Amino acid sequence: MARFTRRHVVTSGCIVLAVAVSLVGAATIRDGVALSVALVIAIAGTATFSARGMRANHPTLVRVVLSAVAIDCALVSTFFFSATTNFNLAIGAAMSIVLLGLSFLTGASGQISLGSSAFMGIGALIMAMWANHHASTPIVVTLLIAVAGGALAGLLLGLPATRLRGPYLAGMTLAFAVAFTGIVNTFSSWTGGDAGLQLPTSATAPHWLVALFSVSTSPFVTNTMWITDITIVVTGVAFFFMANLFASRTGRAMRLLRDNDVAAELVGISLSRTRVIAFIVSSAYAALGGALWTLINNSVSPPSYSFALSVTILSLVVIGGIGTIPGALIGGIIYAYSANVISWITTQTGLNPQGNFASQLNGIIFGGLLIVTMLFAPMGIAGAVRHYWLRRRAGVVTE
Amino acid sequence: MLKKQTRRFAYTGTALVLCMGLMTAGTSIVSAGAATKTPGVTAKQITIGATVPLTGIASPGYNEVAKAANAVFKYVNTKGGVNGRKIKYILKDDCYGTPGFGCTGNPNTVAQTRALISTPVFATVGSLGTPTQDSVRSLLQSSGVPQLFVNSGSRDWNNPTTYPGLFGWQPSYNVESKIFAQYINATYPTANVCFLGQGDDFGTDGLAGLVAGGVSPTDTQLYSVEALVASSGGSFGPYIAKFQSDKCTVVVLDTIPGATDAALGAALSLGYAPHWVISSVGSDPSTVYAPLSGKVPSDPEIGAVSFSYLPVSTSTSAWIPWMRKVLGADSTDFPGFSSSTALDGNMEYGAAFGVAFVEALKAAGATFTRASFLKILTSMTFSQTPSLVPLSYTSTNHQGLNGGYLDTITSATQAQAINGTVYTTDSTSTGPVVKAAKLSTGIPSWLK
Questions:
Q1: Could you list the residue range(s) of the whole structural domain that residue B153 is in?
Q2: Going by fewer Cβ within 10 Å, which terminus of chain A is more open, N or C?
């Protein structure tokens, strides 16, 4: 574009101002540079995706920019959060990756899977086992190896799964989830059995990141922030790929498969191939989430990847919103804070902490939320919000 | 709806405002600096913490341990604390890292430990469990928080090069088993011995100790805790039946209390009555008898031999009445504790490491850092704690106690020392079992 519109002037002005104030106001040059980089990305990104016609003409670019801005804002905010909040954020982000995978499988391609916990467990175990044998492999490479393992498992499970529908598919994935803990115990010399495995060292923040903090900040805070930052970047990339997949030809094929498989076949879509791809994607995402959990917790405890977790995951997908991207994020946040909320409820209502009711509170609350969601908002929270927004736009609801 | 143009300005404007806010906040965070002082320590108080199974699968019996330590700390606080500082002990319920079974805490040891680190605590003291504490070793190490007196006999706590802030307390499973082996060789030299152990280092280290002590079991079985729980003890039937058909007259159990119950129950129903030799981990009379009472005609544990590194409740040690006094004074942790309440092994355990911590704190002086405290631990020998042998660590050995005596279970609540001879040994396969050169010398006057 040859002409400089008002928007260009305003955006450039903002950027120059932001950089100047950062460099002048920050305590050291290094901080100033870091801050101005973050600000420039945020401003430029916002200006780009809000430009006229961008969404229609350059959707992929908009997705890239949107992801970059979201990652950027999230990274900056981790700087200010306490270690506890960062930890919860990381756990929730990793869970949202799993939810996204399942949301895609269930919502976009219409297949039910109760095996998410097992795929998470596979990713988590591969991460731990690889790190124990090859400690020098970079974190990202180990994550990719875990994803590959999850994808392979998804392929193995997905091939027979193409013959099954509905409750039978659910039953098969359920069997896998239940068998997983047994398999782990059988190979306990590899997997550590009930006790699980620990990563050889705790991830520590690199020098350049520690230098951004004042001397008195504890390593606990900086290390937690580092792990959270890694998780956020990985989550952002995973969401970006999924958003692209949703909008791509494969995504459309999957939605058609869900809605009308006869029509899909007539159009020339290979049913079994598409279903298997959906399975592989969903299991790869679940494995990535599990591997991130291993990184965050610095250990893997196979008993925690039980069938009960699968049910929680499915509930969160439904509550957040099946088949939507914001739904996965909402589900992740709910998961991250559910433990806190439950213990808050226990203390507020003065329940006997050792009584039956209190110990089942987790299941009661999730089950209750699930029932309420299915009755009043079957499309989940994200779906309900989108529904409201669309109705508002169409002028049905007036303020 | 706003006009498109206005909307876009609004977006960029909001971004700008947000940035301004972040910048001002950012500069203030980065330039803030506080004087570094020892975390968890003020002039008047020292804060320590532990992750323990207050509820959940491992809680019966084990939930008393840290509470007993807390009772010791409260007692010391009533006397003005240590060097003017009161001890604040924060307990986080991690349900042994296992959800379900009535768990109302957060069965995530990592999250609970992180909560403690954020408090901040000076150190974790008396956290319980081998897998649970293994999972937070490197986190505590990288955060610079000492991990003291881990409640477990695993050798994982003895790794001073990688984890200089990590210390065990109780004797290792190897030490216990070597002393068992000496007893078995002396008392049942020709018997067939069978071994049932937990399928982690509790069982494997225990077996290694037996073998190192010269006992080669005819049959060895390792059980999984998950299978035990899933089958409500039923999974032990085949193991005990096999031992019976092997004609083992001595059976060594390296089992947690629930597994001890399963083994004893299975033997009872098979009419099998070998000489039981049970690890201190799972032999406490009250804890073992509680789930069986009312279901069996008599306590099947009576006559079993076990190992104790603390004075049994029937002994004449001055620590026993002292512990009763201290626990009785803590009505929050031990409501209704009276002279007729049994003083069980769990309570003694907690009180013992509580005393050890208090003595180390006193020795550390009025001003100390984490580093200077750890130096005190590895340079001093603590001869005036409840344990039978003195507690000492070196810069190359962080395991803890290394000896005890053998006792027999005489009732549903009591055990008696067999002859009171205290033995010590190490965790290696060659170190001999010898009579303890030095014993603990009693209660220090300032603690009475």
A1: 45-171+315-401
A2: C
